[in-house]
Amino acid sequence: MAISISVVLLLAILAVIFLRSGGLKFSHALVCLLLGFCLAGTNIAPSINSGLTATAGILDTLRP
């Protein structure tokens, strides 16, 4: 749960930065948001979630 909230927060911060810098238009952000909601309702959502969880686990084992 904490990883999901962290990823959502990170993506939200990146979206705001891109919107403010002009690199991302509002319509593009809206399309990405709708795509995310559509993906969450499909059968591939558990695969995406497990892939993100595995990636977070790999990143957690790396030591700087």
Helix count equals 3
Give the count of structural domains.
Answer: 1
> What structural class should be given to the helix and strand makeup?
mainly alpha
Order of helices and strands: HHH
How many E strands?
Answer: 0
Gross morphology is flat
Poorly predicted ranges:
none
Rg calc: 14 Å
Helix content: over 70%
Termini, distance in Å? 24 Å
Describe this structure in words.
It comes from Streptomyces cellulosae. This is Dicarboxylate carrier MatC N-terminal domain-containing protein. The protein has 64 residues and is mainly alpha-helical. It has one domain (2-61). Helix content is 81%, strand content 0%. The chain is flat and about 35 Å long.
Task: Sum this structure up briefly.
With 64 residues, this protein is mainly alpha-helical. It is built from 3 helices and no strands.
Q: What labels describe this entry?
A:
flat, 64 residues, mainly alpha, 3 helices
Map the helices and strands.
Blueprint: H1 2-21, H2 26-40, H3 45-61
